Amino acid sequence: MSGNHYSNCYNNDMNEIGIPQGVGRPALRALSGLGYTTLNQLAAMTEQELLALHGVGPKSIKVLKLAFKEHGLKAVMVP
Length: 79
Description:
4 helices, 39% helix, 0% strand
């Protein structure tokens, strides 16, 4: 294993960064079930919208915010 902490770290488009696995499997299942597979896709969602999904809790939000910052992505939930 390469130490990659992102599911499908880079999808078909090299600019698309996968969702961090640290959000947990229930959250990953909920997000992928709705068609969200990259951080880029989640950038427009608010913290409240994400928390409303089954499996997404405070830990998932913390991991996502950190990932947005690490990758320099602009996101609604990251000031």
